[in-house]
């Protein structure tokens, strides 16, 4: 008797609803996801390619991009830029397929992160060393070091900021639970308001901290009171799935490894201009995140003091 094999057919809507992040970098939202989403549908439905295999493919394309950059030839620089973008498209696909099929692994997440860092390091070294060899300008060597430093700074900072925000929210929740009446299993009211800066994936199981009620604790009161214009701007970005961190590590990489090499076909000096031009807003947004986190910590201190029936340290004696 013949056996029939039935394969689940995924649609583009499945990919969008089950794998897209609630908020992502604007480069990814507008320039990568439209292509990556359609490729995911084709790969998931017609092949048995695994997420780890795609991760390796992205890594090899990244190495190919570095090889092109090393030549310092304008045509090869443009080819390297194209390869880097394709590498990033594949890099976005592996996670989507893993979430879509439920085949993600710890090893896959580790490979993805490590290969990303190696790709940035290799492309930065190749691009700037190639330009140094072609021009003899020491500035390119400094820029190469700066690119690697900023890339690591951004990722380490992002992890730590998220960790601090989560910790503040956990502390608020625990304080409410401790203050709840004896025998009560939960606080009398929902303790926390949605924090748009955590950028959780749509399929995250950590949404229990996210409530949207008028009486919830808001850890961004001070920031919003000072910058009211930010609220409608943020709402517009969220409606389009775009993070408010408009120049993140992703945009910085794309500027350095795609826009810069493409413009270098006109003048090699454009690599310097684009790299510095992308670094400045990246650092500015990082500073803004630190400032916003500081204001949130003040809201956190006040909220915690209210829950515990004490006064914040900076209000003592007021």
Automatic annotation (TrEMBL):
Gene Ontology CC entries for this record: membrane
Highest rank taxon of the organism: Bacteria
Ranges where the record places region Disordered: 179-204
Signal peptide bounds: none
Compositionally biased tracts (Low complexity): 179-190
Pfam families per record: CDP-OH_P_transf
Coiled coil regions in record: none
Keyword tags: Membrane, Transferase, Transmembrane, Transmembrane helix
InterPro entries xrefs: CDP-OH_P_trans, CDP-OH_PTrfase_TM_dom, CDP_ALCOHOL_P_TRANSF_CS
Family to which the UniProt record says this protein belongs: Belongs to the CDP-alcohol phosphatidyltransferase class-I family.
Protein name: CDP-alcohol phosphatidyltransferase-like enzyme
């Amino acid at each position: 008797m013949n056996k029939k094999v039935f394969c689940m057919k995924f649609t583009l809507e499945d990919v969008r609803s089950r794998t897209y992040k609630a908020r992502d970098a604007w480069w990814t939202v507008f320039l990568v996801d439209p292509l990556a989403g359609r490729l995911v549908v084709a790969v998931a439905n017609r092949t048995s390619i695994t997420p780890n295999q795609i991760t390796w493919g992205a890594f090899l394309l990244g190495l190919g991009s570095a090889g092109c950059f090393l030549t310092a030839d304008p045509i090869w620089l443009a080819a390297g830029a194209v390869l880097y973008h394709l590498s990033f498209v594949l890099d976005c696909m592996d996670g989507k397929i893993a979430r879509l099929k439920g085949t993600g692994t710890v090893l896959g997440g580790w490979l993805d992160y490590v290969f990303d860092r190696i790709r940035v390091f290799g492309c930065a070294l190749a691009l700037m060393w190639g330009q140094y060899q072609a021009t003899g300008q020491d500035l390119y060597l400094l820029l190469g070091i700066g690119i690697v430093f900023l890339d690591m700074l951004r990722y380490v900072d992002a992890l730590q900021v998220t960790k601090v925000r989560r910790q503040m929210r956990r502390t608020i929740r625990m304080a409410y639970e401790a203050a709840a009446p004896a025998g009560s299993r939960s606080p009398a009211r929902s303790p926390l308001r949605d924090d748009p800066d955590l950028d959780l994936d749509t399929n995250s199981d950590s949404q229990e901290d996210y409530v949207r009620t008028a009486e919830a604790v808001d850890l961004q009161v001070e920031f919003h009171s000072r910058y009211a214009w930010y609220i409608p701007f943020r709402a517009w970005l969220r409606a389009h799935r775009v993070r408010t961190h408009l120049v993140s590590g992703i945009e910085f990489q794309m500027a350095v490894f795609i826009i810069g090499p493409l413009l270098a076909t006109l003048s090699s000096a454009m690599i310097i201009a684009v790299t510095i031009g992308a670094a400045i807003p990246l650092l500015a947004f990082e500073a803004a995140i630190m400032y916003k986190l500081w204001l949130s910590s003040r809201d956190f201190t006040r909220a915690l003091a209210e829950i515990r029936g004490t006064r914040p340290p900076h209000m003592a004696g007021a």
